[in-house]
Amino acid sequence: MSDSKALMPNLGELELQLVAKDDARFVRMVRLSDIATGKFAMPFGHPWFALDYYKNHNSSADHSTEAYKTLVSQLEVVYQLSCSRNHRLMAKGNTVLAQHPGKKLFVLPEAIDLDNLRAQALALGVDPSKYLDETTDEDDLAQCANDWNLNQNLVCGKAADNVQIITDLDGIDWLVLIVRQFGPGRSQLAWAGGFVDKDETFKAAALREKDEETEVSVSGAGNTTFDITTTELASVRKSDWDPRAKFVEGMEVGAVVTHYRFRC
After folding, report:
1. What is the domain extent for residue 85?
2. Which of 114-118, 124-128, 182-186 has the lowest mean pLDDT?
3. Cα–Cα separations (whole angstroms), residue 156 to 89, 122, 183, 186
4. Rg (CA), the chain
């Protein structure tokens, strides 16, 4: 397989088209393993839904294999790394909020032992550097505490994500991810997702956001076919999901997993 083809899933005679829409800079295919090993970082608490799906909901896989157990352990560490990044931004955000009378500060969660977390990551083959690197914090903080985010909404926010997974003919899982156009996490890889509208369910919001931000289509002929399963993940409420000043009361986030499985 050539280097160019190695960047895309093996779909046999079929061809995959990806289109970025709305506030996605572009759409990119990334191996699940590259997220699980920290090659690419995800903003907010986004690794949570990959962890939840592979730990609890992927019924087609053999969860007893050592490779699968390692994957879940890696995703657990990556999620903790994403939390550590959020905590760092929340602490820095509090220094900005303190300069604005009447603004509520983040209640910081219990500190994560970064030395221990770094050791766990390295033992599992996870590179923690992209989550622990503070070089983009200035840009993130500017986005977290801009005028829109300083207009605090003192209730728990609600958002929904769509997790799109493609299992190719080689059995490799690929994620359909957007590249964020805006901060925090500008230029990082994220699920298609956004805020839940009034009277909208998490599932409806996740599917709407998928269609607003991405377009995934398959064309071609031959012996290759595919199945699509849709799994709704339970919403999760976390105080450290989103480090933007608008959401000091935390965030409740739901997700839908759209899993394409290709076969000959």
Report:
1. 3-263
2. 182-186
3. 18, 35, 20, 23
4. 19
Give dist(CA 155, CA 104) in Å, integer.
12
Beta strand spans in 32-139 (E): none
CA atoms of 33 and 105, how far apart (whole Å):
36
Number of domain units in the chain: 1
Q: What pLDDT is stored for residue 2 in this prediction?
A: 34
**How does pLDDT run across 164-213, given as a tens digit for each residue?**
999 999 999 999 999 998 889 888 999 999 999 999 999 999 999 998 98
Supply the pTM of this predicted model.
0.94
Q: Which residues lie below 8 Å from residue 161, measured CB to CB, with a gap of 6+?
A: 46, 49, 191, 192, 193, 206, 209, 253, 254, 255, 256
Could you tell me which of 178, 189, 227, 166 has the C-alpha nearest to residue 10? 166
Dump the DSSP string for 157-216: EEEEEEEEEEE-TTS-EEEEEEEESSSSSTT-EE-EEEEPPTT--HHHHHHHHHHHHEEE
C-alpha span between 226 and 50 (Å, rounded): 21
Residue 6: pLDDT band (50, 70, 90) is: low
3-state DSSP assignment of residue 255: strand
Which of 4, 5, 15 is CA-nearest to residue 217?
Answer: 15
